[in-house]
Design a protein that fits this description.
Elements (H helix, E strand, L loop, with lengths): L19 E2 H13 L1 H5 L1 H13 L5 E2 L2 H6 L3 H36 L25
Antiparallel strand pairs: 1-2
Helix pairs in contact: 1-3, 1-5, 3-5
């Protein structure tokens, strides 16, 4: 939506706040219907929606009904297919990125020193040769 990014209603003419990308609603619906995680994790939903939307062409409109009224069933099906593909790729991409980041963080964590479980596992200190003379 054009309103946002620090803008206030008084700064834009009336009617401008209804402008939006037609694909936004479709992507969010597709995510909600295909990903349990997207329904429960807002960060995941936002990340995957952004990735999916960046792989779809922008289609800015004022009213969804105007868009669908002038489209054939073939065009509507093509849009649906594009949304499904973009969402599937976005989910895979975000999940892969999260796994890679977690793996990298685990690799960079310093290894903990082993802790002795009993007195028999305790290591005797090595005597200092200068103290023995």
């Amino acid at each position: 939506m054009l309103l946002g990014a620090g803008r206030r209603r008084g700064e834009l003419p009336s009617g401008v706040d209804s402008i939006h990308n037609y694909y936004e609603h479709l992507v969010l619906e597709e995510l909600a219907s295909t990903s349990e995680r997207a329904r429960t994790d807002g960060e995941f939903l936002a990340d995957t929606a952004c990735v999916a939307l960046n792989h779809l062409p922008p289609r800015y409109i004022r009213h969804d009904v105007d868009m669908t009224f002038f489209m054939s069933t073939v065009e509507l099906q093509e849009i649906h297919n594009k949304v499904q593909a973009a969402v599937a790729k976005a989910v895979a991409y975000v999940e892969h990125s999260e796994a890679a980041r977690a793996e990298e963080e685990a690799r960079l964590q310093p290894a903990e020193a082993p802790v002795a479980d009993s007195d028999s596992d305790a290591v005797e200190p090595t005597p200092d040769p200068e103290e023995q003379t």
